[in-house]
From TrEMBL:
The protein's name: N-methyl-L-tryptophan oxidase
FAD dependent oxidoreductase domain mapped to chain residues: 5-359
Species lineage: Bacteria, Bacillati, Chloroflexota, Ktedonobacteria, Ktedonobacterales
Organism, scientific name: Dictyobacter formicarum
Keyword Lyase: no
Needed cofactors: FAD
Alphabetical UniProt keywords: FAD, Flavoprotein, Membrane, Oxidoreductase, Transmembrane, Transmembrane helix
Record-annotated membrane-spanning stretches: 6-23
Matches recorded under Gene3D superfamilies: D-Amino Acid Oxidase, subunit A, domain 2, FAD/NAD(P)-binding domain
Name of a matching Pfam family: DAO
């Protein structure tokens, strides 16, 4: 019996999680192609931590996905005996009537989650590190935490290899040839050789346009984002459990945590506001005006940061769909190729679940979560497919 060969382009969280789930389902021939190395510095999945939060305004769909995903992260922890997730709780601060924080609170309560509504007095007593006067809706959700991103990637990489999967680093994809549906898909590499596959998953992050440049014009924009790391803060006041993860309008951040096993312990914060257009292969340039604006807003929110040291600024790229929802779908006119893109800076926490959903597309199985919301057809008037190239 023919065993299908599945090739996954991209070894970020989505690509690795897809390979992991396919292998667990019994697939024997699974290959992941990575242009650099797993967890390389320019990858969207790279880094020490990602927020796992349930707050999505009045949206009930994503909180349910978070619940399913957290369950799978904990199962992976048990299987691998790794600590991939640390509970932190989330302090959410909102401004004005019907703010994102208030919508999230009401929605999560309606779904049965236990959240605390805080007044200013209680908030100041419990979390004195924050200046809350400018916010009129305060809530605390204990059902949240942070994933240790690099460790998650390394754990999945190890698991894939232990299950017989193949990860080929330094294999850059330059084109995908699939003109004849009766012939295998040919994946061309920068080294001028090629790999053949029966099914392909494209999870290339910000490089998706380059991989598919002769195939389809995707409704994905790339934006330059920054992470800020602050040093020399009192550990007792700014680490767990005294200091939670937080969300305040577009600002978000984490308690002090270490940069690797032997690295420094820093507080991490950022703005989720979409930045300037970016290209994945360009040399990152730090926009000092943006950094100054974000730091001053963080100073207003957490006054102690004024005396802290801004120890590091990290640059990375969002791949953002026009409606900020993911794209999980087949390539038009060829169901052998699956697209995974548009992850907008909020996909990592879903990574292990998204890998399972993409595995369902590869295997033509019924997905655990309905994928209608993630279909490419929702952009039917906004994207177009160029004429197919001739091999």
């Amino acid at each position: 019996m023919h065993q299908q060969h599945v090739v996954i382009v991209g070894a970020g969280i989505i690509g690795l999680a897809t390979a992991y789930n396919l292998l667990r389902q019994g697939m024997r021939q699974v290959t992941v192609l990575e242009q650099a190395t797993v967890d390389h510095g320019q990858a969207s999945s790279h880094g020490i931590s990602r927020l796992l939060r349930f707050e999505y305004g009045n949206d009930t769909f994503y909180p349910e996905m978070v619940r399913l995903s957290l369950k799978r992260w904990k199962q992976l922890e048990q299987r691998t005996r790794q600590y991939l997730y640390t509970p932190t709780g989330t302090l959410a601060l909102g401004q004005g009537p019907n703010s994102f924080s208030e919508q999230s609170y009401q929605t999560l309560r309606s779904l049965g989650y236990t959240l605390e509504r805080l007044n200013h007095s209680a908030g100041a007593q419990r979390f004195p590190q924050f200046r809350m006067q400018d916010y009129d809706f305060l809530s605390y959700n204990a059902n949240a935490g942070m994933l240790h991103a690099s460790l998650c990637l390394q754990t999945l990489r190890t698991s894939i290899r232990e299950m017989g999967g193949t990860i080929l680093e330094h294999h850059q994809v330059t084109a995908i040839r699939h003109d004849n549906a009766r012939q295998p898909i040919r994946i061309q590499l920068a080294a001028r050789n090629e790999i053949v596959a029966d099914r392909v998953v494209i999870a290339a992050g910000p490089w998706v346009h380059r991989v598919l440049r002769n195939e389809i014009e995707l409704p994905i924009q790339l934006t330059r984002q920054y992470l800020l790391y602050f040093a020399n803060l009192p550990l007792k006041e700014f680490s767990i459990p005294a200091f939670p993860a937080f969300m305040a309008d577009d600002l978000y951040g984490f308690p002090i945590h270490k940069q690797g096993n032997n690295g420094p312990a820093w507080l991490k914060a950022a703005s989720h506001t979409f930045g300037a257009p970016a290209e994945p292969d360009e040399v990152p340039v730090i926009d000092e005006h943006v950094i100054k604006h974000v730091t001053h807003r963080l100073y207003d929110l957490i006054p102690a940061l004024k005396q802290a040291e801004l120890a590091k600024v990290e640059s990375y790229i969002y791949d953002v769909s026009l409606d900020e929802d993911f794209i999980l779908d087949y390539l038009p006119h060829d169901k052998r190729i699956v697209l995974a893109t548009g992850f907008t800076g909020h996909a990592f926490k879903f990574g292990i679940l998204l890998g399972e959903l993409l595995g369902s597309l590869v295997c033509d199985d019924e997905p655990l979560v309905p994928l209608t919301r993630f279909r490419l057809a929702r952009f039917a008037r906004q994207w177009q497919t160029p004429a197919p190239s001739v091999a």
